[in-house]
Amino acid sequence: MTNNKKLLAWVEEWVQLCQPDNVYWCDGSEEENRKFLEGMIAAGTAVKLNEERRPGSYYFQSDPSDVARVENRTYICTNTKELAGHTNNWVDPAEMKSILREKYKGCMKGRTLYVIPFSMGPLDSDIAKIGVEITDSAYVVVSMRIMTRMGKAVLDILGDGDFIPCVHSVGAPLAKGQQDVAWPCAPIEEKYISHFPETQEIWSYGSGYGGNALLGKKCLALRIASYTAKEEGWLAEHMLIMGITNPKGEKKYIAAAFPSACGKTNLAMLIPTIPGWKVETVGDDIAWMKFGADGRLYAINPEAGFFGVAPMTSTHTNPNAMSSVRANTIFTNVGLTPDGDIWWEGIGYDCPAGTINWKNQVHDPASDEPVAHPNARFTAPASQCPAIDPEWENPAGVPISAFLFGGRRPSTVPLVFQARNWNHGVFMGSIVGSEVTAAAIGLKAGVRRDPFAMLPFCGYNMGDYFKHWIKIGEIAPDKTKLPKIFNVNWFRKDENGKWLWPGYGDNIRVLEWIFNTCDNAVETVDTPIGFIPKKEDINVNGIEEISANIDELLNIDKSKWLEECELIEEHYRNFGSHIPRELITEFEALKNRLK
Ligand code: GTP
Ligand code: SPV
Ligand code: MN
């Protein structure tokens, strides 16, 4: 399939080390895909869902220990610890490689080594990058086929060129005659999700789930790409990309960074509840952005599918996601109904009797055990989204007018506010906090700082990453064309713990204000933390019952913000000398305005 010498030698080297029974080069065809899925059904790993209800779709349950990203087993192996920074786990690259070579030795015995050539980004985009993943998991192969452009076409484009080598093994070799389990993986303390940004390599061992195993996503498109982006002067971000069209037919694209399980997929696919507005989806998780010839910042979605949180997705909260998963979808760790369909908490109808939960037991309606794991996910082709943007595969990307930052903040942070300028916006990104979610294993409950929603995904020192954002503002060919920066918070609660804001489709009401503010079409209110809307500029037609909440949603409690400043102080202190002085200046200015 290829004459690429580096690729052939690299595969051969890993075959020698991992000692698989077979080697298979993936062409990405329909036929090949069917063969893998049928093999997994025969092996008891996959269940074919009811062809009438859920055509071309399959059901998987992971091992109960392998349900999400493992941040404490994720490593950035740069030459020095300082280059990785205090927010990343660091091990010297040579040491990590020697630990892992031992683990990889014979780790694919009894299994097949699959070679997956893939492209992050449209094949004809010069922002796109080619990777090759080797894996011993057929689940990874069928998932990568949805999440990336994968197979022979990628090898054709690669030719003799360079690629990012990505090594993956579930870390569960089979002895002769040993029966396989449905979801092979290694125990948590033997998992390693390792990145070598300086040499552009990914070595992942021991997990078969999501971002730990589909190496094009978080590992390549964020951790490795963020490092490259810093070197080359562009941005690789944990951001959705969406198009918004107003009733006059004017369209803008915005990109939004929220931490994992904080609403990117939902916002990207939003169906507006106010008439005349339209939202279209370019991407739901990752954005790669470069300045175009016209001086604007252009974004591509490097992915080809959605790996979305299933629980709470319904025809009420996210109809476009429900349509996206109507067929040709892989479901992992949701419930399986007796008639061969899927079910999860918040899907919008009662759980059918006899449904099997994600732990493969018949669900007992009297128990508190959830049917779906909170980080249960669907893997669906982006092309199936009814709201997919006509430009979503444009190799040049789409021009970005605004950036949104946000997280889950039950108090303190208002519904929306605008940065005073670029550096203030970078400051806002650098202090993003959010209540932790189920998207990663083993985190302490409560609010944690997740700057730019990149805490788990930045491939180098996060203080230097802040500097890079400052620098993007400086190197912009035309500073007036830089995206405007906003912070949003859909998750503010009242004293009884109830959401103050309806969220989902009603978030268009905030986007409307942002859209108009980008055009300087509305007057804003200057506050110590930034510009907020005038109360009457948030459209509450049709949700008058919550209009009483607007004051609270826009309220800026100075004493709470002074407490927040103490937390920011502590957060910044951890970066030592890596914190850019521009951000110190912004922080001082905020404290002065609060006085
Ligand atoms: P990752 O894929 O982990 O990066 O997550 P994400 O940022 O795409 O989050 P997603 O859109 O999947 O939402 C995660 C959870 O937040 C789901 O359970 C949603 O139902 C819930 N959620 C999303 N948007 C809103 C909102 O506007 N309001 C409220 N209250 N909940 C929301
Ligand atoms: C996230 O955790 O931000 C995800 C899911 O998008 S995973 O791909 O597993 O990282
Ligand atoms: Mn994500």
Describe this structure in words.
There is one protein chain. The chain is an alpha+beta fold. The protein has 2 domains: 5-46 and 69-232, Phosphoenolpyruvate Carboxykinase, domain 1 (3-Layer(aba) Sandwich); 237-303 and 390-594, Alpha-Beta Complex (Phosphoenolpyruvate Carboxykinase, domain 3). 27% of the residues lie in helices and 21% in strands. The protein is built from 16 helices and 28 strands. A hairpin with a 4-residue loop joins strand 9 (192-196) and strand 10. Helix 2 (30-42) runs antiparallel to helix 5, helix 11 runs antiparallel to helix 12 and helix 11 (422-430) packs across helix 16. The radius of gyration is 23 Å and the shape is globular. The model has no long low-confidence stretch (mean pLDDT 97). Bound molecules: guanosine-5'-triphosphate (GTP), sulfopyruvate (SPV) and manganese (II) ion. Manganese (II) ion (MN) binds next to loops.
